[in-house]
Amino acid sequence: MPAKLFWKIARYPMRQHHPEKTDQLRSGRLYVGAAIALLWLWILLMTYNQQWPWICRHWPISLTMTLGSFIAGATPQGGAAVAFPVFTKVLHITGENSCTFGFMIQSVGMSMAALYIWSNGITILPRVVFWAVVGGIFGVTLGTFWIVLPNPYPRVLFSLAAAIFGLTLLLLRRQLHAKDYPSAPPAKTAQPFFVTGAAIIGGIFAAQTGSGVDLAVFIVLTLAFGINEKIATPTSVVIMGLVSLYGFSLQALTGKIPTMVWQWWWVAFPVVIFGAPFGAWFASRVQREWLLGLILFLIFLELVSTLYLISFPPGVWQVSVASVIACLAAIALLLAYRFRCVSAR
Fold first, then answer.
1. Per-residue pLDDT tens for 178-200?
2. Which residue intervals of the chain are DSSP H helices?
3. Beta bridge partners of 179
4. At residue 124, what are phi and psi to the nearest 5 degrees?
5. Which residues are CB-contacts of 152 (< 8 A; sequence separation ≥ 6)?
6. What is the pTM assigned to this prediction?
7. CA separation for the pair 186, 191 (Å, rounded)
8. Residue spans per domain, the chain
9. Least packed by Cβ within 10 Å: which of 158, 222, 235, 338?
10. Which of 180-215 are b and which e, b meaning 16 or more Cβ less than 10 Å from the residue's Cβ?
């Protein structure tokens, strides 16, 4: 029975039709009810455990996540583009604690954004979500226990890959006429292959940086399949929210969460349950070109902050050049598939 359910979900059509839902779901009352319940639970636990002084002690975390959670819900970048430079340069937080906190806070904020997206009928790609979550979980597991890259390689390599994607999207904007609706690729096996592979790679990086699955899948959807950014973005948000739940659970089970990081999570909790859904609302209302401009700006910001904040040992430059070549080859493969198989339909 579980195997039949697995394959039924896996073969769910890529195009997601939205028949008229009940007024309760369409008006987003499910999200509102969940947010109010979580907020009251947070207040009760903070009061019972006498944790209110943590807010005065860690208010910079809450302030940072006000913008970070909005970015996480509105773009495929996650909140790392904002949080990383602030955490590293201003708050002097180590990369390991920053990664752990990223999983923890995204499991709340981006999951609430996913609930908002679903309850308000915003179009996503369920088949993509399924395969990406499967690949992301596998990638996070690999990146946690086996494929552990030494610092600063994870952040540098992922920033370079994102920058190459952003430059490609900017230069080929006129040639890449993305469709306004999701559509399945002509080869039934191609889409799960590309999406799962990208999610595995993104998951390996996410295990060491806190994010990556969402942007990796977004790159595949926009370059290989020509999916509109306003559809690919909420899909990537749902994916990262679900993968973050797994990453958070994995960190908790392995006992890798310091007490201080738990305190940061508590003080940022009420911020992200509203900030990330607000970002999802913004992305669903803003024009497509404005959303694309915001995504490209955040990619540029992350690259600049990485180059400025991270010291480059001699070996990093050689690896960076090799990764740039590999990324260019991967993007060329995605574009070749796009022009030969998708655009030719």
1. 554 444 444 445 788 999 999 99
2. 2-10, 23-26, 29-48, 53-57, 59-74, 80-85, 95-119, 126-145, 153-171, 190-209, 213-224, 229-253, 259-285, 288-309, 314-337
3. 227
4. -135, 175
5. 95, 310, 311, 312, 316
6. 0.90
7. 9
8. 25-342
9. 338
10. eebeebeeeebbbebbbbbbbbbbbbbbbbbbbbbb
